[in-house]
């Protein structure tokens, strides 16, 4: 029996993770659940999974949750303190980090320090603090298995210790606005951006997919997970999202990972690794798959991808600042306070003002994130 702490249990990844747990009730149990403020679903999950601890981050929702789970005899915790306690919960073997945003960084660090293996969905953690988190995991002998579909694909195609890896080919759907010009993109609305062609995900990552910042975050995530240089990570637009990514080797072989666009596949693999278990999902029917196509990313219309490569190459506190500014700008776009192209413009303005720190501590990274969030409100 693998005992799991699920941070972000009410979200898109969180809910799909509970489905995977449901498929294998003899093998998995959920000992900790955490959400931000959705008490209804969280209460249902507490009833169903009987965890040892439940966290509601927003303190103002504590009363409502407590009332809904009056039968619950375990601990109910709040805030960052609560998330950290759940992430390092004594009986948990594995932590699934499925919260959205850099709020996942500190709990992930604490989980690693407590010796928990990590199924990592929360890419913002590696964007903001890649070297620090990977070094800590190495020191502690902790396995970080990616949940992000592209990284799960690369992880499965990455042979041995990455010997003779020439290149990572990171595939991208291109999002809902593939083919539009920068001029046309100025007028797109949140409603249009939230209609992703191939994946159904939380709001923040869906907007990131529309700006291509998601692919930029994934480039940085891949750089740290697989210890490859930015020059060796190439983004390939592949609108059908059938090939989830590829690894190119020095002998001319390219290994790719194919599958349906269903996050339960990489989630399951992260929970069963190093084993592969059978499930009943439908498979790809190649006869019905008319064609798969590839194209180059449009760096001119989607500046976020270029910005992420640049911030990643600069390193230090730059990626954390880029990420923090992006989180705030995505919220402002979703609430219709700024336009779509104000997202990359705002990030560039913030990065140009930032005094970069070379080898930041965790505290310096969190401070850079706070600075970016505050300052971005002054520049847009
Ligand atoms: P959602 O917005 O759907 O869900 C986020 C989850 O995190 C919710 O359960 C939310 O709770 C919870 N949460 C948010 N903030 C806090 C907080 N401060 N404390 C505790 N819980 C919190 O996001 P997704 O599931 O789409 O994405 C989660 C992560 O996975 C992101 O980092 C994303 O980039 C990554 N990812 C997602 C993919 C997908 O297909 N969705 C694919 C690849 C990666 P509440 O419901 O109460 O708000
Ligand atoms: Mg992805």
Shape: globular
Task: Profile the largest sheet.
Answer: 7 strands, parallel
Radius of gyration: 20 Å
Report the bound ligands by name, code or SMILES. Answer: NADPH dihydro-nicotinamide-adenine-dinucleotide phosphate, magnesium ion
Q: What is the chain-wise order of helices and strands? A: EHEHEHEHEHEHEHEHHHHEEEHHHHH
The count of β-strands is: 11
Query: What count of domains describes the coordinates?
Result: 3
Distance between the termini: 50 Å
On the 0 to 100 scale, the average pLDDT is 97
What's the total helix number? 16
Helix content: 40-55%
What does this 3D model show about the protein?
Residues 4-130 form the 1-deoxy-D-xylulose 5-phosphate reductoisomerase N-terminal domain. It is an enzyme of class 1 (oxidoreductase). Residues 144-226 form the 1-deoxy-D-xylulose 5-phosphate reductoisomerase C-terminal domain. Keywords: Isomerase, Isoprene biosynthesis, Magnesium, Manganese, Metal-binding, NADP, Oxidoreductase. The structure is a single chain. α2 crosses α3 and α14 crosses α16 (362-379). This protein has helices at 12-23, 39-49, 62-68, 79-87, 105-113, 123-140, 149-157, 182-185, 190-193, 203-211, 213-226, 264-272, 303-314, 318-334, 342-353, 362-379; strands spanning 2-7, 28-35, 53-56, 75-78, 94-97, 117-120, 144-146, 165-172, 233-237, 243-249, 254-258. It has 380 residues and is α/β, with parallel strands linked by helices. The relative contact order is 0.11. The longest helix has 18 residues, at 123-140. β1, α1 and β2 (28-35) form a beta-alpha-beta unit. The strands form two sheets. Strands 4-3-2-1-5-6-7 form a seven-stranded parallel β-sheet, sandwiched between helices. Strands 9-8-10-11 form a four-stranded mixed β-sheet, covered by helices on one side. The chain folds into three domains: 2-146, Rossmann fold (3-Layer(aba) Sandwich), CATH 3.40.50.720; 149-260 and 269-304, no CATH class; 315-379, RNA polymerase sigma factor, region 2, helix turn helix motif (Rna Polymerase Sigma Factor, Chain: A), CATH 1.10.1740. The structure holds NADPH dihydro-nicotinamide-adenine-dinucleotide phosphate (NDP) and magnesium ion (MG). The site of magnesium ion (MG) has 4 residues, from α7. The site of NADPH dihydro-nicotinamide-adenine-dinucleotide phosphate has 30 residues, from α1, β2, α6 and α10.
